[in-house]
Write a structure and sequence with these properties.
Length: about 140
Amino acid sequence: MSTHRVYKNIKALRELNRFSMADMAESLNISPSSYFQLEKGNSKATIERLEEIAQVLGVSLSHLIGSEESMEEAKRITDLEMELEEKKRIIEILHSSLEVVTKYANDMIMEENKRLKKEGMDDLKVPKLPKIPKI
């Protein structure tokens, strides 16, 4: 993994966490200008400093430096998140369809109950379907 890539990862993770450079400098107990130089790759970070940065950003050191294993794990997580979003979308569509079918069925039941009442057969009244709970 190139050194340049490590510093790009630091910046990307910092922005993802919505930390400013000043926030990072404060968390690491260094000056903002020192942090700026570090993130730009103009000064080299020790392994200890990289471990501190990883801790502040809430990731493992291997994730921060972009090891192949952590990249695969990140891709797997992204794939699972996409799959989850797709399943949520399908559930919303099915729920919406079920609401439409239930409303239609209840409208038909109301019409049938009116007919039964008109013909004096109230004792054969059909109960409505329950409302579909919100998801």
